[in-house]
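Q: Could you fold this chain for me?
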Amino acid sequence: MKYLLLISSLFVICLYGCGNDTTNNSNSTGGETVIFSMDSLSINLTSSIEVKDTLFYVSNAPNIKISFNCTTNADSINGFASYQIVAGDSNMVYLDSVNSNNSLLNGDHFININASSYFALTILIQLSRDNANPYFLRLRNIKVFKL
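A: Sure. Below is the predicted structure, expressed as structure tokens.
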């Protein structure tokens, strides 16, 4: 009986000690604050062309940096891949950037934008093909930082 009481006491202490799982990140990002993040935006082509995008509004962050990793197997002969970043408000387009150079798509990308205090930001990907080969385009670990 003593052992049962001792084991149940230890179990309760261990269970009670598991408390809060709050994690604090102590790494400094140099004044950058993540204001938007997305795990991935991708296309696995099942037709001849496909386009996907995401649109969100940036508020009180006139200077931002976008970072992501891009991968594709499009070969620029039978498969065409591109991404486009558009930032603008009702008065001005601050950035309309297209990267369609397949040899430069694979890798990490960083884009800085200086805009107004409230603007729309669109990240768009497009993939097309001339044959039945399976092509993909993926943007991963998409983050928008307020600078």
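A (continued): The chain has a mean pLDDT of 85.
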